Fold this sequence. Notes:
The protein has 3 helices and 5 strands; from the N terminus they run E-H-E-E-H-E-H-E. The two termini are 17 Å apart. It has a 5-stranded mixed beta sheet. The chain has one domain. The protein is an alpha+beta fold and 82 residues long. It has helices spanning 7-14, 40-48, 63-67; strands at residues 2-4, 19-24, 27-32, 56-60, 72-74.
Amino acid sequence: MIEIVTVEDFKTYKSKEGYFIITDTTGRKLHATRCTFVDLKHFSEKVADNANRNGKYFYTDDFFEAREYPKVKKCEACRRYL
């Protein structure tokens, strides 16, 4: 699993097939990279502009690894991709 910390990394991994785990104060969500809720604006607000104070983004191309992340829940919007 790779922690995404820069805008360049986000753009690179967003364009790949795989999964993001987003952690923030509302919990931990598993998203497909093509989920519409995974976008540059939200990434910038949580990670890039605020030095990870509002959350973290992780990427993996392995669904089983993503699913095993502690207390992760599947995104309701992109469940059909998972």
